[in-house]
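Table S5 (text form). Sequence records supplied for joint modeling of the four-component complex.
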Amino acid sequence: MGVKGKEGKVGRRVTSKEVAAALGVSPATVSNAYNRPDQLSPLLREKVFEAARELGYAGPDPVARSLRRRRVGAVGVLYSDRLSYAFADPAAVEFFEGVSVATEEAGLGMLLLPGSARGARDPEAVGNAVVDGFVIYCMADDDPLVDVVLERRLPVVLVDHPGVEDVPYVGIDDEGAAAAAAEHLIGLGHRRLGVVSFELTRQMTGGLADLSRPERATFGPSRARLRGYASAIRQAGLPVSEVPVYECAESTREEGRVAAEALLGMESRPTALLCMSDQLAFGVLEAARDLGLSVPGDLSVVGFDDVAEAGRTSPPLTTVHQSHVEKGLLAGRILVARLGEDEPPEAGLLPTRLIERGSTAPPG
Amino acid sequence: MGVKGKEGKVGRRVTSKEVAAALGVSPATVSNAYNRPDQLSPLLREKVFEAARELGYAGPDPVARSLRRRRVGAVGVLYSDRLSYAFADPAAVEFFEGVSVATEEAGLGMLLLPGSARGARDPEAVGNAVVDGFVIYCMADDDPLVDVVLERRLPVVLVDHPGVEDVPYVGIDDEGAAAAAAEHLIGLGHRRLGVVSFELTRQMTGGLADLSRPERATFGPSRARLRGYASAIRQAGLPVSEVPVYECAESTREEGRVAAEALLGMESRPTALLCMSDQLAFGVLEAARDLGLSVPGDLSVVGFDDVAEAGRTSPPLTTVHQSHVEKGLLAGRILVARLGEDEPPEAGLLPTRLIERGSTAPPG
DNA sequence: TCGTTTTACTTAATCGTTTCAGTAATGTAC
DNA sequence: GTACATTACTGAAACGATTAAGTAAAACGA
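The corresponding structure-token record, covering 728 residues in total, follows.
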């Protein structure tokens, strides 16, 4: 016996059949003891539990039970990239948080699965995932794993990835939100803008581009945001093709710094930067500080997401608010409802709004 | 057909038997087509895939396959509380990140499971979790779910929860690290200390206590840290029983604020506060600012964990560094190795060290 | 040409439950 | 005392695969 009577030997599997044999009853009875107490006498039920305890039977095997019941008790969450990347991104973490609330409400587990982006080891993990349904989050339009999931014919909810028939879609109006961010800067009087963007294509290496061909982006929200920035800029009569876009391989502070250094080192330095995420914007803020530029005096910065830390930077970040928690919660609730026979909440677009904090001001 | 030929109807389950029947072959052959290509002719294999595509068979059912193979392809991560709480705690998120690296290396999924703390809906989720092994993270000593997991006799790794025989344990020297934090403050000349603590017992409601009876804490690391603080203070010849301890229900900024307000409102105000987590310390920093106290001029603050944001607050936080990512990675790797026949890396204590930043100084 | 391998499948057992359809035994109604 | 429920179990068929062992046919060596 271990401390407190616990011990953790990994042991031979004990089956219900063995428990039944030890007691001279049928396996059905053992099953009933665990699943339908009304089907046997309380006395026998106790005996079953006692025999189980003695033999080291911890209750019905979850896999066999799942097979028979055709229900696993877990949902899969498919993320575009390595999970270690997701965990480093506050927006993704907030999304997971929302999903977890829904799964916990339903007593379900949450199986996190990495997508097929760089460094994916084993796409089979998705096809083999033991789950009752999927939330597909943040996947590139052309990621083959989306099809792998759809082919399994399980209930699915898509997030930030519209356009698959018969699959509920949860997202935001990325284009409108991005346009609002750009309009804000233009309204303040900025004329020389720059964009700090997510990666546009799979093979990107990072670097400069311009705003003239947003359609090539393979990731839906990136495309929409680029379109939003472009349309607001065009609306204002500014030359879209002259707006520099720096493409970042990842949504991290480091990439944001690199982007800012590139953009702010240009001959005609932008007076304001539109960032596709708060993480990128945080990096921009750091870079600006290092370059001796004051924000918002010398440079205005707008983020996207409004993660918790956006209110705490100095200056606090002007950004597009969206609730990642709500997004995950809604996606999770829709999926959970589809797993049962419940009427799912309505899928659709969640609201966004521009939060004006301290990182934007008229150009100096 | 949907857009791009995709569609997401949730459909009747198609079995290998049906595919076999459609082709007039045995189910074994269909299985071989997917699992052992060398067992059938390439031609027939192609035919199997074609028939599968036509019938909408997406490959072997993961549950049935898992039952037969006695292997699921996922590990469970059991967390003490609601997952939404874990996702709000950077330390837990960093830990998950580490685990995810290990699971991805092995091509495994990661099933997150909430523990039985307040608000737990369904303890059965743990007993029914379809996984090959468990990482038990951050559980209270008396949490019944630990036993539920151990009884399943699967490979398990315990984190921050020592003392179960035959189960590898990963952690840090909480007592020593806490002592180092207290010694740092004492060395600076502080004599009136206060502690901002995690919850000590399950039924706590938050509030003031003192350092004299650390043994009552039900959560191992809390107990050890309290002991560490106490021993350093005793060593310095200061009266341990006069050190106020504020017990926080959760490791959040808000609780940290509340704690700081209580502690700093006392008749003989502490000149330095020892916080059991960076999250709590962040709250303390906020409260100090609101109270018009300068840190470290009027108040020194020491955190615990060294999460990423600790380097970015103003002033940057002096704290005890531990690598949650490494902790998760090590725990994950040990578990993964135990699932196979590999020799697991050695379990044990990870290093910590005090990081002196700007939040501590001699008392004013 | 005969015996031996090899190739290409099939048969049937098995993984560990759940559950439908019984069947005796006991209880209740009149 | 007969008819009808109710209680307390059992038997056997799923659930959807994998796999060891077996078999017939084709290929091969000498």
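Note: Chain A touches chain B through 79 residues (CB under 8 Å).
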